[in-house]
User: Fold this.
Amino acid sequence: MSECIIQKYDSLNHALQALQDCFSITVPEMLVIAEKFHEDMHKGLTGLKGPLKMLPSFLDTPSGGENGVFLSVDFGGTNVRVSLVSLQGNGEITIIKRKSVPLKDPGGSYDYTASAATGRELFCFLADQIANFISPGVNIFLGHTFSFPTKMYALNKAVLIGWTKEFKTRLAEGRDVNKLLEEALKKHGLHGVRPVAVTNDTVATLLAAAYGDPHTDIGSICGTGHNTCYLEPQPPQQPQHHCPMIINIESGNFDALPANVYDRQLDMRSEKPSEQVLEKMVSGRYLGELMRLVVLDLVQQGLLFQGRPCDMTGFPFKPYSLSPEHMSAMISDDTKGLIETASWLKEATGIKDPLLAELGALKTSASLLAVRSARLAAATYVGILQHLDPLLTNLHTIAIDGSLYEKMTGYAQNLRSALDEILTDRAGQVTVRFTKDGSGIGAAIAAAIAVQG
Ligand code: BGC
Assistant:
């Protein structure tokens, strides 16, 4: 595949300097982003046209007293996870059992994210996983985390507005996903499984953390996708909604950002250009591809791997051939000769004798992109805090789940440092809590709230 040179550089050093400039986000820039984000939240809440959908969730935070055993289905960007969750009613939660199945078979036998599949088939696949997971005839309430923008009409009625994260499954947009699940469960004879609540994964994460920590008022996912929600004390001009209510911002669609040539190129080639601009800069679905575009540019200018035989069908020539896991491994490669990166490069490209400077350039690019991702996410959190409590007089907990936050080397620390840099002497008011399995646990809590009030 031949692609054009994007940005002309005259040496590898010069290129790295230019990349540093184009991917760095300074504190004043983060403050501008936070301010704009805050403005756009207000627009969304008051019904003005803007990038932030500000979707009501029909959920307040839990009391921590909800209890019982619930089934949770977590439909994310990569896997579907089915769990049996026990809420103990004292802020304690146990996952009794859990199973995770990819939405796209790595062996190629199925792909429910592609246009060959329909919404009905996808939900039939979900019901299959549930049928294999629970005992026949069981009666149980089910909470469903659906990690895409939905317009909620009630806690158990959520219409998919549009796919994100490059999903192409047909005949699902505009449909009520709870109904699709209900129909699929019935078809599988699972009459005792009652889907009573649908939540976004950010909302589920907020619920999961708030079950034990009453200061939690922001929930976020930094994983395959990116999005944030918060607890709105009083949405203006929406008197029909009870308050407080968690609002799913759909922050991935925020777009007042300093996009560079690589961001624009990725966006142009994506399934939905001009949409999900923040998500395309932050999330794991796109981070590897952005780095691939950077590396390809350097290769095509003869600044990397010049004259050495290279497999033209893999990285960096094949779109989406680099994952955040690869990037994380490069960032954490502290060996003297960057031998772990060299060994990955050999496997990925066939290049056997890279220069140390070339391996260093890979590590630097990976790091620049990961740091930018964390700083952009942090800037949006500050925008929300400005809306909630401009002087930070109260304590706030930001609950975060997602593979990027959990596994990308240095990600959590970079995010925390960015918050500290922006909030300075008030930073201590804000706790960031890694909320593992928040999406699955939160679905169970949502089901409990639906039936216990
Ligand atoms: C979706 C959000 C979701 C996020 C994280 C985005 O692509 O639009 O609804 O919360 O991914 O999974």
